[in-house]
Design brief:
Immunoglobulin-like, 769 residues, alpha+beta, 34 strands, six-stranded antiparallel β-sheet
């Protein structure tokens, strides 16, 4: 906390700066045209006119205005601002500043005739500079339109750091503890991204041939991928398309997804995002993209066709291509915070438009409330912030064609004033919205604030990333579970978390790995994180990996260790894909991708993160891929593996069999005592005889029954297959001890037979008779 004398000195300095800026602005009245370096063109340059326009819709919308004149309507909500200028940029960087003089319900607006799609623009917003009350207006800073449909942002810059001009405060102020309170008067226009005017809406025939797959939740298999990383090294994609939306739309990329059998891709963030200064200083970039700055704009860095609006059409083309292959598109979205960070972060958009309106501020309004670990938190209970988010979501559904969303740190969005509230405005608006309530909604059900862990708490319509599934399955296969109670819940749909309020087993998105953490291969090869390449002294990333390296840390030439690692990978994959709930795979796990032990590769836009497609030519990659495809085909063919209702566990007529039963190695049903005892072997019986629900014709759904035997111990075990009335015989369809997984083993055992289960293995049987 600065002393009174220091605060007074800063205030005096601020008054002088404000006076100087006012003088300079006064000189420019009547001469609004200048380039990004402050140079003015010669006399006679045309000056656009501004008509009143309309306050809605927000953003820059090209349309035909009064008297049939075409142009663009600009509308910006800037509560508390004193003046707003729209700034137009030509190809040379020359800037034309036009005041928006119309103000309707805190929305500044104006129609500029002749402004067409492709025009680059931004805003300058005037107002008080008083950080102690949260006021951080600074007209020297060009601001990105929150509603910009496209952003022209160069990806190839290499400043070594963000230039000081992009900060609203004097970053290099000698008294660093109060640096954020001193307004910086340098022009940021040459250094910040600019919005691009695009055609509003879509031609009538643009989506005429598009058919959304509309895959039911219970039938869904999610494949989490990164647009750039998935396509960057793919040999079947033309080099100029690699790393782009067009690359993901290429038949070579889609062919892999179809052969695998997934029903949806979940794309890591594709909203326009920015790179953090601390990464640029280390020669790195934000690779994952959880640093959004434009909620309507496809990230320009993933466009092969251009950044003057072409990225919008390219993204739509990708969606149509995936839909044509029967694959849904789910976006990982980051509405909980923005790239502007805390009080020492850059001023790129919302901070300079209305800092107090867009962000949660504590009683010390100079700071930011941070439930995200990223410096700031959007103030979702504010109507205009809620409007921004829901307008963005509807836009991506109705105009960009996407099928759902995964909400990063969703608990932060569900906070009312302070606490997480499942009746919060955000969740209430989503529940009643006629567009959004019909798409797939996935919550990452936690944030970093107090009370932020909310797994199992989101209301109906929502599914959730179930990290308790991840932890239980990892712990079982590394031999760290004290008993199997938690594992039983996770394998059967997590009814303890989701059997309330009409929720179903598919409320649980089951996963063993995700983008955040070890890959599947690293999970069985490393116990400790190895994040040195991130440049943070290996301090970043979680310490809680719940991993087992099979006896050797990292890569090894030991054939026995590598064979065990391949088997453990197959065990984890098989467990995931026969569990009740919605499985999520991570791109590359099906071919043995490694990040070399890096469990936080958010800044690794390199071979560390990109998929190495040559792995599919190796025995390891071929075996994993074949097993994954076989298991997904099996899951698709058998409704008992993708149930729409929870198991009852009660005996069913006529022979008293249960729809779900658990067995010990002795072939006996587990007792209450068995659940509380340490165990490394578990038999899971799923009955396909009487599956709740009806098919599309109203007919009863029946299926084969299955027995899954999971054995995590390093020694073999004798397992007695239950005899009649459970089954007359058992056909072995999956055996994870086999390196070759292209076809089923096909061995048949009589009921009552004792089989030897090899060390650390999963055996999946189809019951006969």
């Amino acid at each position: 906390m600065a002393s009174a004398a220091e605060q007074k000195a800063v205030q005096e300095k601020r008054k002088e700066e404000v006076k100087e800026q006012a003088t300079e602005q006064g000189k420019d009245r009547g001469r609004p045209i200048r380039d990004g370096n402050g140079h003015r063109p010669g006399p006679g340059a045309p000056r656009p006119v501004v008509w009143p326009g309309a306050p809605t819709p927000l953003g820059a919308r090209y349309r035909v205005g009064p008297d049939g004149v075409a142009g663009t309507n600009f509308a910006l909500w800037a509560g508390g601002a004193e003046a707003v200028e729209v700034c137009l940029f030509d190809d040379s960087g020359a800037e034309t500043r036009l005041p928006l003089t119309e103000l309707t319900h805190e929305i500044w607006h104006g129609f500029v005739p002749g402004i067409r799609p492709g025009q680059r623009y931004g805003y300058r917003v005037h107002g008080r500079w008083d950080p102690w009350t949260g006021a951080r207006w600074n007209p020297a800073k060009l601001l990105l339109d929150p509603y910009a449909r496209a952003v022209d942002a160069a990806e190839g810059h290499d400043y070594g750091r963000l230039p000081p001009e992009v900060y609203g405060h004097v970053r290099d102020w000698p008294q660093r503890e109060v640096a954020d309170t001193v307004r910086d008067g340098r022009d940021s226009a040459p250094y910040v991204p600019k919005g691009v005017v695009v055609h509003d809406g879509a031609p009538d025939d643009e989506w005429a041939d598009d058919r959304r797959p509309k895959t039911p939740w219970a039938d869904s298999v999610i494949y989490e991928l990164h647009v750039r990383g998935f396509t960057r090294l793919h040999p079947g994609i033309p080099e100029e398309l690699r790393g782009t939306y067009a690359g993901l739309a290429h038949p070579a990329a889609i062919g892999h997804l179809r052969r695998l059998g997934v029903t949806a891709v979940e794309l890591l963030p594709v909203h326009q995002f920015a790179h953090e200064d601390h990464l640029l200083r280390r020669g790195l970039r934000n690779y994952w993209g959880y640093n959004s700055i434009g909620y309507f704009a496809p990230h320009a860095g993933y466009a092969a066709s251009g950044t003057r609006g072409q990225q919008v059409a390219e993204f739509k083309g990708m969606v149509r291509a995936l839909h044509a292959a029967g694959i849904e598109v789910i976006l990982d979205v980051v509405y909980n915070h923005t790239a502007e960070g805390g009080e020492l972060g850059p001023t790129l958009s919302l901070r300079g438009i209305d800092n107090r309106g867009y962000y949660r501020l504590p009683s010390d309004a100079r700071r930011y409330t941070d439930y995200t670990g990223c410096g700031n938190t959007l103030h979702v209970v504010q109507p205009q912030v809620l409007r921004l988010i829901t307008d963005s979501l509807r836009y991506w559904v109705t105009e960009m064609g996407v099928d759902g969303f995964r909400f990063d740190l969703a608990a932060a969005l569900a906070r009312s004033m302070h606490d997480v509230d499942m009746l919060s405005p955000f969740l209430a608006v989503i529940a009643q919205d006629p567009v959004l309530r019909r798409v797939k909604l996935i919550a990452e059900p936690w944030d970093v604030g107090n009370g932020g862990y909310q797994v199992g708490s989101f209301p109906p319509l929502w599914t959730e990333w179930n990290d308790r599934y991840r932890d239980a399955v990892r712990d079982f296969w590394r031999g760290a579970l004290p008993d199997v109670r938690d594992l039983g819940y996770r394998l059967s749909g997590s009814s303890d978390l989701y059997a309330w309020g009409g929720r179903r087993p598919y409320a649980s998105v089951n996963f063993v790995t995700a983008h955040d953490g070890f890959t599947l291969r690293d999970l069985v090869s490393y116990e400790r994180k190895h994040n040195e390449a991130n440049g943070e002294g290996n301090r970043d990333g979680t310490h809680d990996n719940r991993a087992w390296n099979c006896g050797v840390e990292g890569e090894t030439d030991d054939a026995a260790v590598n064979a065990l690692r391949r088997r453990q990978s197959r065990n984890l994959l098989t467990t995931l894909l026969v569990s009740t709930g919605v499985p999520m795979l991570v791109a590359g796990d099906e071919m043995g991708r490694t990040q070399r032990g890096n469990n936080n590769a958010y800044c690794q836009d390199s071979e560390v993160s990109w998929l190495d497609w040559s792995l599919l030519e190796s025995p390891r990659g071929q075996g994993l891929h074949a097993l994954t495809a076989r298991l997904l085909a099996l899951r698709h063919a058998h409704p008992v593996l993708r149930r729409r209702a929870f198991f009852s566990g009660r005996p069913q007529a006529p022979d008293g069999l249960r729809d779900l039963a658990w067995f010990t190695p002795q072939g006996a049903e587990m007792t209450e005592e068995d659940w509380y005892a340490p165990a490394s072997t578990l038999g899971l019986f799923l009955s396909g005889r009487d599956i709740p629900g009806r098919d599309a014709r109203g007919e009863k759904i029946t299926d084969d029954s299955f027995l899954t035997v999971l054995h995590a111990d390093g020694r073999p075990v004798e397992f007695a297959l239950p005899g009649p009335p459970w089954a007359q015989a058992y056909e072995l369809v999956v055996d994870t001890t086999r390196e070759e997984q292209s076809e089923a083993p096909g061995t048949v055992y009589e009921g009552g037979t004792t089989v030897t289960v090899p060390p650390r293995a999963v055996l999946l049987f189809r019951l006969q008779g």
